[in-house]
Amino acid sequence: MTAALVLDRVSVALDRRPVVVDASLAVPPGCLLALVGPNGAGKTTLLRAVAGAIAWQGRIMAAGQDLAAVPPRVRAQMVAYLPQQRDIAWGLPVREVVALGRLPHIGFAAGEGAGDRAAIDRAMTAAGVEGLAARPVDRLSGGERARVLLARALAQAAPLLLVDEPTAALDPHHQLQVMEVLRGEADAGRTVVAVLHDLALAARFAHRIALMDGGRILAEGPPDAVLTPDWLARAYRVEALAGTHEGAMWVLPWRRR
Question: How far apart are CA 153 and CA 162, in angstroms?
Answer without folding.
Answer: 9
